[in-house]
Every structure is written in structure tokens, then in C-alpha cells.
Design goal:
CATH superfamily: Lipid/polyisoprenoid-binding, YceI-like
Order of helices and strands: HEEEEHEEEEE
CATH class: Mainly Beta
Strand content: over 45%
Shape: elongated
Helix content: 10-25%
Number of domains: 1
Oligomer: single chain
Strand order of the largest sheet: 1-2-3-5-6-7-8-9
Length: 191
Amino acid sequence: MKSLSQLSQKTILFFLLAVTMSISLHGQKFFTRAGQITFHSDAPLEKIEATNGSVTSVLDTETNRLQFAALIKAFQFEKALMQEHFNENYMESSKFPKATFAGEIVNAGEVDWSADGTYEVKVDGKLSIHGVENEVSVPATIVIKGGKITANSSFIVAVADYEIEIPGVVADNIAKEVEIMVDINYEALQQ
């Protein structure tokens, strides 16, 4: 009789483990402090690229909302002088220290948070750069694999939309539109 009880306990334990392991990613929050945003300016006289590898982001799979925050001074350039001009003359990072985004996956019904797969989504939200906030709608790709979520996006931002002034003397060195590339590897948020 004792062995039957032990067998039942093992069966119940196995069942509980199986259920726990099969719980979907739906209804969880995911987080990173090591997201990456790269921007690329392709102007007639100069190509400029900078990367920030310390972007903070939260994704809530229950509400399908997400947020990003990037410190402007964390963008790294190939040349120190470019970084100095970027922070002091264009982005005024002492006055406007971060860029933020808060939005929602509008076609989240197409994402099966419980299954591995690649999902093309549209994200609508508010992008704040240089103290100016604009509504944006951007394409993104979400990849779910083995319980991990990655997200990436590429979109264009017009510098004038964020009141970033480019002096005439360097107008041919800086593009009027900048490509923004976002790459995020999320981890489950431990609460």
C-alpha cells in the first residue's frame, strides 16, 4: 500500500511539474536593462552611427503594452568629437537626458505568447526625444523561442519632428531623417 501512495505522489508531482512547465508567457512581464538602440544618419558628406547598449524596456504580455527608456549620453560614436557634438549641440542631453517610448502592440491577437514563433506586429505609441513627444506607428518583429522573447524594429525619424536644429554649416553632414534600429532580448521579470 505504501508503494501505491508513493507512486501516486510521484504522479501528482510529475503532473504539477508538467503543468508548471507548460504555462504560457501570456500574462507575464518581461524586462531588460541591456537593450540596444542604434541610429544611422546617411548624409551626403558623412555617415554617422551610434549605439546605446543600456536601454531599459518592459513588455507586459497581458496588456500588450511596452515601454523603453534610453539615456542620450549612453550613445557611443566612432569618434569622440561626434559624441560631444551630438550631446552638447544637437540633443542637448543635459537638458533632455533621455528618450522614451510608451506604446501598445495593436495586433497582439496575432501573437501566441505560449508558442515558439516569429510574429510581425505593429506598435503604436508616443516617442519622446529632445523634449518633444510624437505619436508613432512602427513595425516590429517578436520572436518567441524556448520561453524567451526578443523584439526588433527599424523605423525612420525626421529630425525636425523633434525640434533638433541642424546648423546650416553642417547641413550636408547630418541627414534630415535618421534610421532607428531597436534590438531587445527580454527576460521574465521576477516579482
